[in-house]
Amino acid sequence: MSSKNAARLARPKDVEAIAELTREDLQARLTALGLSDFSQLPSEATIAGSWEAAMASPDGETLLVATADNQVVGYAAFSENDGDALVVSFYITQAEQRKGHGSRLLQAVVDHAKLNSQRLGVFISTNDSPRQRFFNSTGFAPTTAGRQGQIAQVTEKEKLWFTQISDN
């Protein structure tokens, strides 16, 4: 059997893997903030239910996955509003990072988002240097806009990064 690395729209059967990766991402972000108690995080079943609802909603987020050897190794979700698209979630599992999956997945997001949007944004934690480097290397730049994000009762500062994806 040949290797199958791709980025594609998520399917209902992908939800369990996406939920597992979402929890892994949340744990990594809390660890980066110096925390090790993950008891406040939602369960994978709760996360899966949220992703199922988002996929079922006609006005919900667009959910994509990255695969390696036909296994889900990452996911991205974005929403659109008034000519801008916003990446609301983006993660590649640690073991599969720096293998091209993130670039492939982000290109799939851009390909879908540019149908209705001119710009693509993403909020990135101010203490997440690897994510900042990745998005910077793909043409995103930080703006002065920011927000306070919440992860299981913990506040993290985030900056908004944008890139132009369409000339329309």
TrEMBL record:
Residues 5-161 form the N-acetyltransferase domain. It holds the Pfam family Acetyltransf_10. PROSITE patterns: GNAT. This is N-acetyltransferase domain-containing protein. Keywords: Acyltransferase, Transferase. It comes from Boudabousia tangfeifanii. One of its GO terms (molecular function) is acyltransferase activity, transferring groups other than amino-acyl groups. InterPro entries: Acyl_CoA_acyltransferase, Bact_Acetyltransf, GNAT_dom.
